[in-house]
Amino acid sequence: MRPDQELRIIATGAPPSLVRAFTACVFAACVAGAARSQDGGDLDRAYDALLGPRTDAAPTDAPTDPLDVALEPEPSDWHFDLAIGFQQISRAGLDQGPGDVERRGTIVGLTAHSGADEDDWRFTYRFESRTYRFDGASGLLPGTSEPIESTYRHRFGTARGFDLSKRLSARFDAEVDLGSEVAFEVSDALTWIAILGASWRIDDTFSLSLDVRAQDRLEDDVAFVPVPGFDWRIDDRTRLRVDATGLELTRDLERGARAYVSTRYQDVEIRLDDTGPNPGGSFAERGFLTRAGILFDPGVGGHSVSSSTLDLFVGVAHAREIEFRAGGVEVGGDDVDPSAYFGLELTLRF
Known about the structure:
This protein is an alpha+beta fold. Helix content is 16%, strand content 55%.
């Protein structure tokens, strides 16, 4: 008897329960044969196609160890930025007296921030070391041609943004600054800066703003400066901003890079120690820093950081002046000629 005749006899004369059992055995044999020649993924697909998806199967991308689930990080709105940078102002002559000066510095900063740009908290610590190299500058302070060498600044800041309505927003920035030579008393070296600003959005591309900047001084009264400004999104990739921190024009490039041109005013005061040519006095450096640069992701850190940004820039330091004071009275100083300004800063976000 041929096999097909045996199958017809079983199918027509056997009880229904026996037919179902035989069919299951044939299916199992077929699946077993397929399993010997194909991988487990094909077996799963054959199973699902014939009998429907299995409700007890775990998703292939789900962790199998309960400990993996427990160790998954909770989503957080807080981000942390670590910045490391270097800046150089090239040698420049003094305007009134003999000699010249150059300046180089290193920067390390840590910032914690959360929320959107318009409604966020921000806490910052920034350390800056500056080294001044004078050459033949005998006219700045009596009896010396090198009135100052190394200075250090510790800056602690906080900022808060507020969305008051669909069109009106406000922000507040405060910073405590400790600038000194090696040895100092905190009470003698501490100054502060506060900025209170408001912005009115005209439309999706243009906003007007008004900032009021208050700056404490080591040996002078607090200075208040109102700064009107604006934020203009010229097109989808170009933006021009003016506020209490300065002027900045940015242009978004391909692959997340950004080019910019900026001008900022710096006003730094340093408390001098008791061992130098102006014991217990102060040193101030003021002027504009104009630079052009590009920001891009250098791929530093791999998967250990969420992102990285490298800022490379060149520019010019201009309209600069240095000043020495003692007891609230100016005892020395001079204007500084324009000079080249360049540097870099790497920021890692965690």
